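Me: I'm a chemist; would you kindly supply a protein sequence with its structure tokens?

Assistant:
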Amino acid sequence: MNARPKKSFGQHFLHDSRYIDRIVSAMAPRATDFVLEIGPGEGALTLPLLTAAGKLTAIELDTDLIPALQVRAASVGELQIIHADVLKVDFTALAQRHGVDRLRIAGNLPYYISSPILFHCVEHFGAIADMHFMLQKEVVERMAAEPGSKVYGRLSVMLQLACRVEPLFTVPPEAFRPPPKVESAVVRLVPLAPQDRHDADAGDVYTVVKAAFAQRRKTLNNALKQLMDTEAIRRAGVEPGARAETLAPGDFVRLAKIYGGQ
């Protein structure tokens, strides 16, 4: 199967078996898992995952790819394909519909929409056991960045407040067809246990983090002036003259609580 990659879908098909094997080995799916793949494409990762798990559900937007993938999977295992935009799929409802507690998600995510997909996953972390994603290496670096780093930002904070971020390995452009212009990387995301999650309102956290990073060079006093005053920032235990990129994820939780009146 050699489908023509579509620029409109940001398609770069993984074909190097060495990296496919490493992803499957890192994920180590079992027959008892509910495995969900985002964007199966030509099935390079789908079929090995299907072989290991016996069954798999995939979300694919490109209708041209679905028939051939169904034919290839027929002799391997039970494949269900959901034709949909992944951002419109309710992962929590999907888990409930199939009578499972949590999903195990994998995917080679299109670069142009990777951040929206990650934020969508955050909204459903209660229904997700773990995620193994192939992303642009730069995005993985942002996801795992520590406070003070040049690439530490909104994505870093929101993901680290919800899960453990573990970069696994890089993947060169030549492992794809067509080769992208950048390196890729595989990352493992494991949602935090309920007792380790913050207790602030999720909407308040999002509002504060978004405002704080809207203009990176601004101090919190200026960046958050539409949300809270200087004294409120101090009550959160945060210095009003600090910049967002210097704050730990927990600092934003305290700010969010003050903002929300907790």
